[in-house]
Amino acid sequence: MKQWKISYSDQDGVSREMDVQFAECPSIEEAAQLVRARLFPVTAELDLNDFEGRDSAPTAKTLKTQNGVTITNISEGVAVA
User: Is 0.70 topped by the overall pTM?
Assistant: First the structure.
């Protein structure tokens, strides 16, 4: 597994980073799901199937429109031994 750094701006506009481990670079949707689980653990269990098939990244869209959180970058992080 590789270390990845997800950069995002939170609901207050403050830039934040989150380190995760994935075999390949996580998609915007996967990153949004991880950020949502960290910031809003109760809503992380919500089913977004209303957007299914209509939006390629429903969690990212919901984070941005309802919570003001935007994924700004996903980059490879430094591996920790």
Answer: yes
